[in-house]
Amino acid sequence: QVQLEESGGGLVQAGESLRLACVASGTIFSITFTGWYRQAPGKQRELVARISTGGTATYADSMKGRATISRDSAKNTVYLEMNNLVPEDTAVYYCAADSAAGWSRSWGQGTQVTVSS
Length: 117
Prior knowledge:
Blueprint: E1 2-7, E2 10-13, E3 18-26, E4 31-39, E5 46-52, E6 57-59, E7 67-72, E8 77-82, E9 91-99, E10 104-107, E11 111-116
Parallel strand pairs: 2-11
Antiparallel strand pairs: 1-3, 3-8, 4-5, 4-9, 5-6, 7-8, 9-10, 9-11
């Protein structure tokens, strides 16, 4: 079982940057992929970025050039840094981890990101 805890959300102005953190605990050795998703009011949850255990990163088209996902294995933490934020980035951001143990996906509680114009 993998448990996730997000942090780093908050209120920022358009054009600013923000870094989110996702700390994993439990059977972290079984994690294959860790990703960031977001859900805005009235919208479906969508993938923002994903990183594999080997360090391969993928991004949503809207985030390419503006986001960087990385990991710190020593801290069991995955980061998402977003630059040039716009109000459309306002959403609850969730961390998710795919585990080879039972081929399951674990979700964090979510952290609110609000971008003001």
